[in-house]
Design goal:
A hairpin with a 2-residue loop joins β29 (770-771) and β30 (774-775). The protein is globular and about 80 Å long. The strands form eight sheets. A seven-stranded mixed beta sheet has the order 8-11-6-18-15-16-17, sandwiched between helices. By secondary structure, it is an alpha+beta fold. Bound molecules: FE2/S2 (inorganic) cluster (2 copies).
Length: 850
């Protein structure tokens, strides 16, 4: 087939999809593959001026047609679009951005005076999971204006550091599609890995025959459990997750790997999978965590089906339950959810001399390094991990997914190997948000002052532990919210089932318990005769007060300020709902929690090395701002080096909203040392010198026995108000956030807008459909909200933190999502008087289910 691509004539084999041709033949990196099913829009290009999704378009339809990708825009257009997106803060992980720009171009080529509604409509087929669309829409408006006025868009120069909205250092190259992600990597002689999944959540493996697959032409190696050179089992906290299920053992979830094949092309590798013969003895899966806890339930793991129990008791909850004037007791249910990051998991392994090297997209290169060495049976100096751009994570890229299979492929073939998940495989394999059932009892006195909370939480952690124990802990320890409650009993059970594994997901268990606990607050308010705002304000903690876990609030506690910030909007709207939340910054609870960085002077530039992953939150920019502020060196001379396990100090995972504080403080410490040297020397004098910084967040374990333990180094606080219109549509969310100090306010707004929209999705529609342990959802049926469905999001930033650690910054990544569902449920209760106990909420314009 002959067609025109970016102004030149090209020819492609018939039968292939346009995306395959553009990515694999032309190697165009602006065309991203987010779903292969025509849903996400990350592959958008223009055909004859119209935006089309190249993953569902066959080249056969293109004879003599004009195809335009972002690479084909004029230099001026590229500059205008990328500058506008960068300055507006419209680029986070960046995976959706080139596709978004192409949809915008299709609109603006026709209409240079678009309304906001026109823009939303134009990008409605482009999913962005990071930004909440707000800043993308603003960027497109700016482009339209610039094009109308035939003017370029200039990049701002930044004169100050902390507190200034710098554009992100990686925004321009991401906007232009020049930033590479793992799947954009192609190497000479590269092989492709495919993995056979059991698709039987509970079955005994009786035999595996890989003979025919091995004989297929183009197949280099076929691997099963017997081939794993190191330890077959890996995992974040417990090593309970097999790389391959061996013959004689049971599968525990549908996504379990049986064998991997490494072939010259992906198609050959997939074909070989079909030739592997596996004999199974299928058994009924255990999909209900309550049934899994029954005494005679078959054991999913040898130690039993209870992964962990969290039990916290303070005061005298039994007595308080009897003596409280009002008691509300309800059972809530929240479903498993998928992160739906736009970039499916991908890794590329290759040898550099004797060292097995991997490009990965992960939340922790240090964790990947440990676990891959373990699986390969190699010492740490024989494996090197390099972070590529990460197209979103939200907790879903903490565990190994593709990395160890790519590494095994290279280990055995000595050739570069790539393993990229299809979207289907991504949905099947990576850990989800825990589905939970929560029985929550809250009591108060006649004035509405909280007296007691008791919660029993059952969390379905699926087949493997992942981070389930810690997720359950956070669900329990945050159930009491930002209130002072003297009597508490929290009892949580994290239970193995044959469902897909559950693990970290933005909020780490807190969105689930917050939903129930905040709904109870509304009901208590009604019993007492208070309104929903007043009961929260009366109970909200202040500095020096004691949280329900016994920790004394620091001077930074600003929940009351967030309540005051939304007060007028709450009272002035007929159908308004409200919810509060707090969230830890850092892992805490006595676990190791260290941020590290090393600064090196090279060619008179300041290079920051740290193994902290940016998964779209803008980490590099914030670290540069901190170093610039501390040393007085212009940010243009400071570079954040992409994480590399061979040179970057371990700074822990990008999890628990911790990096700005932990790695940020480490950067400040290192920068202070540099600053002191600069008093007598110049940067040139310091060539090749290094300055190290470390921040160790020391905390107390749960049930430490201390009266006032320090469970976490900091907490962020928030209040959200949701407003409905007369049709029951969510028209506005006011999100007031106490974030300590906003190092980069634009970044903070972007995190809040994105978190709010993700939370809104979980409130209104999102759900991962499972049937007998099998994932039935596709990317297009997860229920993700599109640009045409977003309400106004009003972000209110409250800064109140005298701490000098990282200039007072606290976490924002997770808390932005947490109170949304409860606030929206509260608004629906105001609207129709119906109490809703389950997510997603039913009987709304977004979900007609009763
Ligand atoms: S990759 Fe084409 S729409 Fe998602
Ligand atoms: S920036 Fe849009 S998906 Fe990440």
């Amino acid at each position: 087939m002959n067609f025109r691509l970016n102004g030149r004539t090209v020819s492609s084999q018939s039968g292939t999809t346009l995306i395959k041709y553009l990515r694999e033949v032309e190697k165009l990196t602006s065309v991203k593959n987010g779903c292969s099913e025509g849903v996400c829009g990350s592959c958008t290009v223009l055909v004859e001026g119209k935006a089309v999704r190249s993953c569902t378009m066959k080249v056969d339809k293109l004879q003599d047609k004009e195809v335009l990708t972002l690479e084909g825009l004029s230099e001026l257009e590229k500059e205008i679009y990328s500058n506008a997106f960068a300055e507006a803060g419209a680029v986070q992980c960046g995976f959706c951005t080139p596709g978004m720009i192409m949809s915008a171009k299709a609109l603006l080529d026709e209409n240079l005076n678009p309304t906001e509604e026109d823009i939303k409509k134009a990008i409605k087929n482009n999913i962005c999971r990071c930004t909440g669309y707000v800043k993308i829409i603003a960027a497109i408006m700016t482009v339209a204006k610039a094009l109308r006025e035939s003017k370029n868009i200039n990049l701002n120069e930044y004169k100050s550091n902390i507190g200034q909205s710098w554009r992100r250092v990686d925004a321009i190259e991401k906007a232009l599609g020049e930033a590479t992600y793992c799947d954009d990597v192609f190497m000479e002689g590269m092989l492709y890995v495919s993995v056979l999944r059991a698709m039987r959540p509970r079955a005994k493996i009786l035999a595996i025959d890989t003979g025919k697959a091995k004989l297929l032409e183009g197949i280099e190696v076929v691997l099963t459990a017997v081939d794993v050179p190191g330890e077959n089992y890996q995992g974040y906290i417990f090593k309970d997750w097999p790389t391959f299920v061996p013959v004689g053992e049971m599968t525990r979830c549908a996504g379990d790997a049986i064998a991997a094949v490494v072939g010259k092309t992906k198609e050959i590798a997939d074909e070989a999978l079909r030739l592997i013969e596996v004999e199974y003895e299928e058994l009924e899966p255990i999909i209900d965590p309550k049934k899994a806890l029954e005494e005679d339930a078959p054991k999913i793991h040898e130690k039993g089906n209870l992964l962990s129990r969290t039990y916290v008791k303070r005061g005298d909850p039994e007595k308080a339950l009897v003596q409280s004037k009002y008691i509300v007791k309800n059972t809530y249910k929240t479903p498993p959810l998928d992160h739906a990051f736009l970039e499916p998991e991908s890794a590329v392994a290759f040898y550099v001399e004797e060292v097995l090297t991997l490009y990965v997209a992960t939340q922790s290169i240090t964790h990947d390094h440990h676990e891959i060495c373990r699986v390969l049976g190699l010492p740490h100096d024989k494996v090197r991990i390099l972070l590529k751009n990460v197209g979103g994570g939200f907790g879903g890229k903490e565990d190994l997914s593709v990395q160890h299979y790519a590494a095994l492929g290279t280990f055995f073939t000595k050739k570069p190997c790539k393993y990229t998940f299809s979207r289907e495989e991504s949905l099947l394999c990576h850990p989800k948000r825990h589905g939970m059932e929560l029985e929550i009892t809250t009591g108060c006195d006649e004035h509405g002052m909280l007296t007691v909370m008791a919660a029993k939480i059952i969390a379905d952690t699926g087949a493997y532990a992942s981070l389930g124990t810690a997720v359950l802990e956070r669900a329990c320890t945050h159930a009491c919210g930002p209130y002072s409650i003297p009597n508490v009993e929290l009892d949580g059970y994290c239970v193995y089932t044959n469902n897909p594994p559950a693990g970290a997901f933005r909020g780490f268990g807190v969105p689930q318990s917050n939903f129930g606990a905040e709904r109870n607050m509304d009901q208590l308010a009604k019993l007492v005769g208070l309104d929903k705002w007043e009961i929260r304000y009366r109970n909200a903690v202040e500095p020096e007060m004691i949280l329900a876990n016994g920790q004394i609030c620091g001077d930074d506690a600003a929940i009351k300020e967030t309540l005051l910030a939304v007060k007028d909007e709450y009272y002035n709207n007929k159908y308004a709902g409200i919810a509060c939340a707090f969230k830890n910054t850092g892992i805490g609870v006595g676990l190791q929690d260290v941020g590290r960085c090393r600064i090196r002077i090279k060619d008179s530039k300041v290079i920051i090395y740290s193994a902290a992953s940016c998964i779209g939150q803008g980490l590099a920019t914030v670290m540069i701002q901190i170093v610039s502020e501390t040393t007085g060196i212009d940010g243009a001379h400071i570079i954040f080096s992409q994480p590399d396990s061979s040179i970057c100090p371990d700074s822990g995972a990008t999890t628990a909203s911790r990096q700005t504080l932990f790695t940020g403080e480490a950067c400040r410490q290192a920068a202070l040392k540099l600053k002191s040297c600069l008093e007598t020397k110049t940067l040139q004098d310091l060539e090749n010198q290094e300055f190290e910084g470390e921040f160790n967040g020391v905390t107390d374990p749960i049930n430490s026995g201390k009266e006032n333990p320090i469970s976490h180094v900091a907490y962020s606080y928030a209040t959200h108000v949701a407003i409905l219109n007369e049709d029951g549509k969510v028209i506005k969310i006011i999100a007031a956030h106490d974030i300590g100090k906003a190092i980069n306010p634009l970044n903070i707004e972007g995190q809040v807008e994105g978190g709010v929209l993700m939370g809104l999705g979980s409130a209104l529609r999102e759900k991962l459909i499972l049937e007998k342990g099998l994932v039935k959802s596709k990317f297009g049926t997860l229920g993700l909200l599109r640009a045409t469905e977003i309400p106004e999001i009003d972000v209110k930033i409250i800064e109140k933190n005298p701490s000098e650690l990282a200039y007072g910054a606290k976490g924002i990544g997770e808390i932005s999502l947490i109170p949304v569902a409860a606030a929206v449920a509260s608004a629906y209760e105001s609207f129709d008087g119906i109490e809703r106990f389950e997510l997603p909420l039913k009987s709304t314009p977004y979900n007609k289910e009763k």
